[in-house]
Amino acid sequence: MRLGIVGGGQLARMLALAAAPLGVRCRVLEPAADACAAVAAEHIRAAYDDPAGLRRLAEGAACVTFEFENVPVASLDYLVDHAPVFPSPQALATARDRLVEKTLFNDLGISTAAFRAVDTREDLDAAVTALGLPAVLKTRTLGYDGKGQAVLRAAADADAAWAALGGVPLILEAFVPYGREVSLIAVRGLAGASVFYPLTENSHRGGILHLSLSRANDPMQAPAQEYARRLLNALEYVGVLALELFEVDGELLANEFAPRVHNSGHWTIEGAETSQFENHVRAVLGLPLGRTEATGAAAMINFIGHMPSREAVLRLPAVHLHDYAKAARPGRKLGHATLCAKDEKSLRAHLPSLLALAEGDAL
Amino acid sequence: MRLGIVGGGQLARMLALAAAPLGVRCRVLEPAADACAAVAAEHIRAAYDDPAGLRRLAEGAACVTFEFENVPVASLDYLVDHAPVFPSPQALATARDRLVEKTLFNDLGISTAAFRAVDTREDLDAAVTALGLPAVLKTRTLGYDGKGQAVLRAAADADAAWAALGGVPLILEAFVPYGREVSLIAVRGLAGASVFYPLTENSHRGGILHLSLSRANDPMQAPAQEYARRLLNALEYVGVLALELFEVDGELLANEFAPRVHNSGHWTIEGAETSQFENHVRAVLGLPLGRTEATGAAAMINFIGHMPSREAVLRLPAVHLHDYAKAARPGRKLGHATLCAKDEKSLRAHLPSLLALAEGDAL
Predict the structure, then answer these.
(1) What pLDDT sits at residue A143?
(2) Which neighbouring-strand residues pair with A301?
(3) Closest chain B residue to A14 measured between Cα atoms?
(4) Which residue has better confidence, B347 or B143?
(5) β partners of residue B214
(6) Bridge partner list, A212
(7) How large is the average pLDDT for residues B310-331?
(8) pTM for the full model?
(9) Is the torsion defined by CA of B344, B349, B352, B353 positive or negative?
């Protein structure tokens, strides 16, 4: 049984490593020569829209999935004609456009920050008037890890924001003075059954996820699941979906969703009964879903721009290393580590050593 | 960082899958075209004693290890001159010869069944007289999974046993009326530190391991560890070693040891903090060893000769599938599954469904 994956980065790598024990081989389509997924997958080195590459990806695949949402539309059109593609191109199209995404959230009764479409300089002024300041101007498509965004704190910031981002479809969002950011990793199977992982609490640095903590028995679990369930069912979704939420005064506002396995779910590899990667593979291939219960408390920390020494990480008890074997570059996600503990107290006791390593401190 | 492995079967496969997250790539030497380790390793398709193959295996490898003990001696001689080889060829040579192995056990004060070397038909008669019957005649080398053995229940069985096995160096062992068979997975690092997994209790069928149960707080843990510690230190061992023991009237008799990761340690992938595979990789590369504590109760069942349907296995809660993606043949180990539970009671409740699947029953 073979699974095709558009993209050959670390998400494809971890999908392939999770697929292997199930007897599922992966084939990835990735133009980069040093695709880190190639450690456990056959690598088709071609552009994401290369016809011969797409043909080889679809050929004999029980399903084709992807590790990022910006798959070229023409590629998706080709793939859906030649193999089952999950999640659906419709789910990708929704996630790709912040305006479509947030409109769907609201249509489903999922609260969000107030927002307005901004296509012209005049639209921006009208949106600022309607939403007030501060507010965040974002490109509707192709934003990630904090890129394609500008914060407007005063009316005078509008010119600079427009100069930086104007010319493509934009969205202005009211600034959310949130208490914390959480994400819910949800999985829906081919037959419509859904399972949900315990909430993850996330901290960012420079727009990139820095630290995730699994949250057993979080009071926001039920409302987050209810939001996710509406979204999964409305999209007739198949696979793993990550719903990012802000908590504001005890209420959840949906920020965005990722139609794929997600960095904030990496802790599930060791910290849950079935990892998000295995469950994505199970879901898109129509296999029964695995249990999502946490096996204890878990914290995941990203290694961004530099990897600590392998020895130093492995010397820490109960820490699991994931080195993506990528060349180091500033701001690049090179690996992560997950700390597992029986309970939150023990987790908090061991976390500082791991955090120090991620900072590049010598231990 | 690269690790070379002689052999490309399921043990190499699971080593490679465990090595990848550590940023360690594996290269395997395996003559079979369908080496199942190739899913996560570079495959050198050549005989185990092919000079060009051995050269490529050693080239640039931080270490070379192996997944079986019958590596040709000439190959080991070549490898030790071109790369660090762990465990040492001396450990392999000891494990390969039942007489040398059992003699070492006794020299270290490790109890075994009584035994005698048998090189001639006359030796056999003398050994039968010395040990009494029943007894088991075994080839000193190349035996595995019950092959190369004959049970003598009466003096009249000697002729048939000699006819079947005579002509190569043999050993006669007194029959052990054991209560149970247990194994201890032990790991010794390059700097000499050792860690031990909880004991495993094993059941065989037709000479092949069928079921393993992890045993938390087993009364035999301490004596088994003491035996293993003597062996590890005497051999200046580096890597994972599996010590197989019989329990007879509350005492342990060592049967044999395997100088490698072992089928009875497969439950550690999901059932222990660090798997035997990751700890072998860590040990032979000189990295710090990981914790060996069980995370709950675990049972591992082998799929021999036929694989149950993927759907049926994945439908069972808390069961982890390992399909080696090998062609089915009678008596061939094709995969295994591990059932994890909070405690032994819950494990016993869920085990029958998994056992039924392994029998090929429809569920």
Answers:
(1) 67
(2) A211, A337
(3) B21
(4) B347
(5) B200
(6) A202, A300
(7) 96
(8) 0.96
(9) negative
Which chain B residues have a beta carbon less than 8 Å from that of A341?
none
How is residue A275 written in tokens? 């990892």
| Rounded CA separation B363/B163 (Å) | 45
For the segment A39-83, what is each residue's pLDDT rounded down to a tens digit?
999 999 999 999 999 999 999 999 999 999 999 999 999 999 999
Instruction: Tell if the CB–CB gap between B23 and A318 is shorter than 8 Å.
Output: no
pLDDT in tens, B192-243: 999 999 999 999 988 889 999 999 999 999 999 999 999 999 999 999 999 9
Is residue A205 within 8 A of residue A256, CB to CB? The reply is no
Distance from the Cα of B176 to chain A's closest Cα (Å) equals: 37
Chain B contact set for A318 (CB, 8 A): 273, 291
For residue A313, the chain B residue with the least C-alpha distance is B288
Cα A23 to Cα A26: distance, rounded to the nearest angstrom:
10
Q: Are A28 and A51 in contact (CB under 8 A)?
A: no
Residue in the structure block whose two tokens are 């019989």: B246
Q: What distances in angstroms separate CA B358 from CA A62, A153, B193, B324, B327, one per listed residue?
A: 25, 64, 38, 15, 17
Comparing alpha-carbon positions, the chain A residue that sits nearest to B41 is A39
B141-186 pLDDT, tens digit per residue, is 976 666 789 999 999 999 999 999 999 999 999 999 888 999 999 9
Nearest CB partner across the interface for B39, out of A13, A20, A310: A20
Counted across chains A and B, CB pairs separated by less than 8 A come out at 81
Is the previous residue joined to B219 through a cis bond, with omega within 30 degrees of 0? Answer: no
The residue type of A74 is: A
Please name each of the domains of chain A with its CATH number: 2-85 (3.40.50.20), 114-174 (3.30.1490.20), 180-358 (3.30.470.20)
pLDDT at residue A311 is higher than 90: yes
pLDDT of residue A146: 65
pLDDT digits (tens, 9 = 90+) for A291-305: 999 999 999 999 999
| A214-218, B56-60, B147-151, B278-282: segment of lowest average pLDDT | B147-151
